[in-house]
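It is worth pausing here to work through a concrete case rather than discussing structure prediction in the abstract. The textbook approach is simple: state the sequence, then state the predicted structure, then interpret. We follow exactly that order.
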Amino acid sequence: MNKSYFFKFLLSISLSLPLVGFTASETWTIEDVLEASSHLSEQIRDQAASAQKPPPRAYAAVSLSMPQASLERLARDAKDAGIPLVFRGVPPSDSQSDAKLPLLNPQSLAAFQPLIDAGADVQLHPEIFSEFNIRQVPALIVKEEAPVSPDGCAKSTKAVVIPGDVTIGYALDRLADRADSIGEAARALRAKLGNRP
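Step two, the predicted structure:
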């Protein structure tokens, strides 16, 4: 390894982590440098190990083509559980005059207003539909955030998709007996809904 690179690395680490202090008057031996390097490596490993992985996130994939009663029920449950309603996009325009308007305009967004009025977190997430190949709505998705390894690479994501026109409570009940982070997240979300089916 290039000595210059090694000392630049040590200096950058010691400046970003005020864990090893030294003064300009100290004389460092090779043992001091190796000990400091070992100490910094341990602290970096400990910090990486203690970093909390974010909890899994849940999404309810829906469409405005669904029956209004189902959408309203899902909007109430999603609001209470803190789960966003995600849509692939905005509804297409029906008339010729609307065809000249931009895709995101007040008229096209008005279709979402009843759900927003019900308190639901409405989001446009076409990438969720692509990532999980969602062809049938509604679908509850519980996705574990991909942890990042010490080398900066993201590991694979674990997720579960529950399709079908069922209540959010029922879908979460199907996941609650899992002994992993997805099951833990499902139990926490289910608790927010109380005894509701």
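Step three, interpretation. The beta strands are 57-61, 85-87, 122-124, 139-143, 159-163. The first strand starts at residue 57 and ends at 61.
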